[in-house]
Write a structure and sequence with these properties.
The complex is a heterodimer.
Chain A lengths: L16 H7 L50 E10 L4 H10 L11 H17 L4 H12 L14 E4 L3 E4 L2 E2 L2 H9 L3 H6 L13 E7 L8 E2 L5 E2 L2 H21 L4 H19 L20 H5 L5 H6 L7 E8 L7 E5 H6 L1 E5 L5 H10 L7 E5 L5 E3 L5 H7 L5 E5 L5 E5 L9 E9 L4 E3 L4 H4 L7 E5 L4 H11 L20 H10 L4 E3 H8 L12 E2 L5 E4 H6 L8 E4 L19 E5 L2 E4 L4 H4 L5 H9 L2 H22 L12 H26 L11 H27 L5 H8 L5 H8 L3 E2 L1 E2 L2 E2 L24 E2 L9 H36 L3 E2 L5 E2 L5 E3 L18 H15 L1
Helix pairs in contact in A: 2-4, 7-8, 12-13, 16-21, 17-21, 20-21, 22-23, 23-25
Chain B lengths: L13 E4 L2 H11 L8 E3 L3 H5 L7 E8 L3 E10 L1
Parallel strand pairs in B: 2-4
Antiparallel strand pairs in B: 1-3, 3-4
Classes of the chains: A alpha+beta, B alpha+beta.
Chain lengths: 876, 78
């Protein structure tokens, strides 16, 4: 067993050849891996001292079994030094900065001292020294003659990827290494390096480390053939060339051949380190696939850092399609039985729970909620089967760990990618259900940005008491109703919930006893209020507002304008004839209609008031009841939208036609005025721009007035209008486009101009500036578009699609960069924001130290409310 | 060339050079050494204008849309 160690410090530097040899357990000299009997060859690439991968064998260096032995490095002595690609740029900089004769850094002693001082202070402050170091190199490079020995300096040309040319001669790695070896420690420090941990000559390799076999295991195929790792293949190449190089040199081969071999060795070492260097053809497998070498293992999304360390696959998780279930609480998640049987929660057996746990164990694995595994005190794991469950249940002892299947009430984390804000992962309570999808209340769709067109979500089961407690206190859905983004509720009614509340509470909807029962039967409400009145038969009736009041806390006071308030010039307040002024007093909805402004996601004034006045528990209960009530409300009224809802009466259609026709005529007049030179240009615009703007304006107005005409004939008896007006879905603009007129199509905010010479389509005359020729769609979607209109509509629509595609990718990358930069910042108890080293970033969080979700976001209304509350308190 | 004061511009917040006592007080308030503060170069136009030296601490009063005024401190470095 290796002893766990605590990391105190990390230092980055270069490894010296001596250190490479010191940590090496074997000098690899032969390119062969296994002999004919399948045993690893000594001093080969699979030498048993490099670590073990075959089960049953022990490591010759540390004696560990596979899994215990971390593997050990070997080394290859390179016949001639080669450049390490990763340092090509650094080598270039150093070469240009030091004298070719005496290897001194070409700066005066005074300059060196000053630069060194600057580097030291920056290091002390913990700031990057890069700028100063770059200045050192830039200054030193300027010297044409060495200030120390007076040797004239030739210009060093760098040719990608790895050649340095001085006065027309290529410098060999040996030459470079010789120069670097002579650089003094003082000069190295001025160049921003630490001579003890990183000498420049160590960027040129004379010894190559051979990675342990554990990081390049060979795979045995079904045919019994061994397939080696890419790294091993590369190492074989290096050793072969190294050997050939040595043989040739010893045999006194001509300089040309030696140089070729040296180049080849350089190529193999380069591709071993990085197989994507530009200018170097990537080394390929026999099949033509480029080899995955060292740097490819680290880089990129699937690389070691982003793919294996920052993020990895986890146990105790599940993923499936989501679907809606309004009967669930917002705090719950419906989990398929099959998933619940697979996921487990560990329970430690103790005197208090042993009898309960025993009952679980006795149920076996197939009888949900049962037990899948039991771990005894000595660490032995027993799989529970139908056969052994009774026996194991009897043996149960304190200290055993039992993996109980997921059951109702367990707390789990629920997540939908992309996880852009903290509400993308929230804790829910499990509700085991039949069928194969995760179920959630549609009211929690907004924080996840989920819909049910095939979205999948992930579920994670916390495995410790601490994790469960944390999830429950910090991550529960009800704790996240208020968004820290804008301080309002992000969870609330959407679509049918809003429509339902609207239909139930708008004006005075009367319900008789039977309908009242129908509406509240799913709610946990037992007391019904006094009837609002009696009808002509003497039967009692209740109003929708009364019913909605049942789910409000008893002492809630609130007034606000509903979403469908038409913003009249003078607000009539409580006497609003549209019923758009909401008054809630002592938990009773007196006036106004409950719509998106009251209970909707992102708006939700009522939800917001409840959560701030009471607590998240009350708010979540309110939302649960609201969901049930609203759905009953919409079912009671009946709600559908069809093609006939887009119908407008004949006279309306005629009026719309008149509007569009007169708009087109006035466009024609504008064009004539322009042609006659009578058009007055707007300030700062050319004549053409003025014309375009005037035309756009005219056509825009035409569409709006067409919409108004349609709107006049479509009232609240139209379900499309109900949805638009209540804020449930869509807008009046959408309805206008469907029923009256689609309007001008645009690309980059202008009328459509592209196409053929001087015209958009061959259907028009050259130079036609008219409305139809530049993308004005007079028809409605209901009526249908003409071929040219359809084409222009497709142009406009495509721009929208391209924009969304670009926006998502750009904002995704921006998010990644921001998160990487800010992830370790922390707000301290004194209100300062500091990073991990303790450096202060902000002296007060957000300049004001305010948490948006803890502050009141509903404006001056608060003052009135507080006054009323105080007065009410005094009177009582 | 006409010389002008950088601080007269409305977009440049007010910079105040702290006395050693005031500086000590700030450091104690936040319980940090000077090197943990944000930095400003001596060559920064405002720093030059108020005659700051390396090691001094500058107090900056910024206008803030949420907090009206926010106070910031910077350590002068070279």
């Amino acid at each position: 067993m290796t002893v766990p160690k605590r990391i105190g410090k990390i230092r980055f530097g270069l490894i010296s050849p001596q250190e490479f040899r010191k940590m090496s357990v074997v000098k690899v000299i032969t390119a062969d891996t296994y002999d004919d009997d399948g045993f690893p060859i000594e001093m080969g690439l699979m030498d048993p001292r490099l670590g073990v991968i075959d089960p049953g064998l022990r490591c010759r260096t540390c004696g560990g079994r596979p899994g215990e032995c971390p593997g050990h490095f070997g080394h290859i002595d390179l016949v001639a030094p080669v450049i390490h690609v990763g340092f090509a740029k650094l080598i270039r900089k150093v070469l240009r900065a030091v004298c070719r004769e005496c290897s001194k850094l070409m700066l005066s002693d005074l300059e060196k001292k000053e630069f060194l001082r600057q580097i030291r202070t920056l290091e002390e402050l913990g700031q990057p020294t890069e700028d100063v170091v770059n200045k050192v190199f830039a200054e030193a490079r300027k010297h044409k003659v060495c200030p120390y020995c007076g040797a004239p300096q030739g210009e060093i040309k760098f040719e990608r990827p790895l050649s340095y040319i001085e006065d027309g001669h290529k410098l060999t790695p040996s030459d470079i290494r010789d120069r670097f070896e002579r650089i003094s420690d003082e000069d190295i420090m001025v160049m921003g390096m630490n001579p003890e941990t990183a000498r420049p000559e160590w960027t040129i390799l004379t010894v190559l480390p051979v990675p342990p076999v554990t990081m390049r295991p060979s795979i045995t195929l079904e045919s019994g053939q061994r397939s080696e790792d890419d790294l091993t293949h590369k190492l074989v190449d290096i050793i072969r060339i190294n050997q050939r190089f040595q043989e040739n040199r010893e045999a006194g081969a001509p300089q040309l051949i030696i140089e070729d071999l040296w180049e080849l060795l350089q190529y193999h070492v380069t591709t071993f380190l990085d197989n994507t260097v530009s200018g170097v053809p990537p080394a390929r497998h026999r099949s033509g696939r480029p080899l995955k070498t060292l740097s490819q293992r680290l880089k990129g999304k699937e690389g070691r850092f982003r793919g294996s360390l920052s993020g990895k696959r986890v146990n105790f998780s599940a993923r499936t399609v989501i679907s809606p279930d309004p009967n669930l609480s917002i705090n719950e998640v419906g989990v398929p039985l099959e998933v619940a049987k697979e996921l487990t929660v560990p329970i430690m057996v103790n005197p208090r729970n042993i009898e309960v746990v025993r009952k679980y164990v006795m149920r076996g694995p197939d009888n949900h909620p049962g037990v899948n595994y039991v771990t005894r005190s000595d660490g032995r794991r027993v799989k529970i089967t139908e056969r052994n469950c009774q026996e194991v249940a009897q043996q149960l002892e304190f200290g055993w760990k039992v993996d109980r299947q997921l059951a109702d009430g367990d707390i789990v984390l629920f997540n939908r990618q992309p996880s852009l804000h903290r509400m993308s992962i929230m804790a829910h309570r499990v509700k085991v259900m039949p069928y194969k999808t995760f179920r959630l209340n549609p009211a929690v769709c907004p924080p996840y940005n989920a819909d049910f067109d095939g979205d999948e979500m992930n579920l994670h089961v916390p495995q410790t008491e601490e994790a469960r407690a944390e999830a429950e206190i910090l991550m529960r859905v009800q704790e996240n109703i208020l968004s820290p983004r804008f301080g309002g509720p992000i969870i609330g009614g959407i679509h049918d919930y809003v429509t339902g509340s609207f239909l139930l509470t708008h004006k005075e909807r009367r319900l008789d006893r039977e309908k009242l029962m129908e509406v509240i039967k799913k709610l946990d409400i037992t007391d019904i209020p006094e009837p609002a009145g009696y009808d002509e038969n003497g039967d009692p009736y209740w109003t929708g507002k009364q019913i909605f009041s049942l789910i409000l806390p008893k002492d809630l006071n609130l007034t606000f304008k509903a979403d469908f308030c038409s913003n009249c010039p003078v607000c009539k307040g409580e006497d609003c004839e549209n019923d758009a002024y909401v008054v809630i007093r002592d938990g009773v909805l007196l006036r106004g209609t409950i719509d998106a402004e009251a209970v909707g996601a992102f708006k939700g004034k009522v939800t917001d008031r409840i959560i701030k006045e009471y607590d998240p528990g009350v708010a979540s209960q309110f939302l649960d009841r609201m969901t049930l009530l609203a759905l009953r409300g919409i079912m009671l009224a009946g709600f559908s939208f069809g093609i006939s809802d887009e119908d407008v009466p004949k006279e309306a259609a005629e009026q719309i036609h008149d509007v569009t026709r007169s708009a087109k005529e006035s466009v024609q007049k504008l064009i004539e005025a322009y042609r006659a030179g009578e058009l007055e240009p707007l300030p700062g615009r050319t004549l053409e721009e003025t014309l375009e703007m005037r035309i756009m304006q005219t056509l825009g107005k035409a569409r709006d007035s067409a919409g108004q005409i349609a709107g006049r004939y479509l009232g609240l008896d139209n379900s499309g209008v109900v949805m638009a007006v209540s804020g449930a879905r869509g807008s009046m603009l959408n309805l206008t486009q469907m029923a009256a007129c689609v309007g001008q199509q645009s690309v980059r905010g202008e009328r459509i101009k592209r196409g053929y010479t001087d015209r958009t389509l061959p259907h028009f005359k050259r130079g036609d500036l008219g409305a139809e020729a530049h993308g004005f769609v007079e028809s409605s979607y209901k009526k249908g578009l003409s071929p040219t209109e359809f084409f222009f509509h497709a142009i406009g629509g495509r721009e929208g699609l391209v924009d969304t595609a670009i926006r998502t990718s750009q904002s995704g990358y921006l998010q990644r960069r921001l998160v990487n930069a800010l992830q370790d910042l922390e707000v301290n108890y004194d209100g300062t924001v500091r990073e991990t080293r303790g450096m202060i970033v902000q002296f007060k969080y957000g300049e004001d130290g305010v948490d948006p979700s803890r502050r009141d976001y509903a404006s001056p209304d608060n003052v009135h409310r507080i006054i009323r509350k105080v007065l009410a308190g005094e009177n009582a | 060339m006409k010389r002008f004061a950088v601080q007269d511009h409305e977009l440049v917040p007010e910079h105040i050079l702290l006395t050693p006592e005031e500086a000590q007080q700030v450091l104690e308030q936040y319980g940090v050494e000077a090197r943990y503060l944000p930095k400003i170069h001596v060559t920064d136009p405002v720093a030059e204008e108020i005659g700051a030296k390396v090691g001094d601490i500058i107090k900056i009063k910024r206008k803030s849309p949420t907090a009206k005024e926010s106070i910031f401190y910077r350590l002068v470095i070279d």
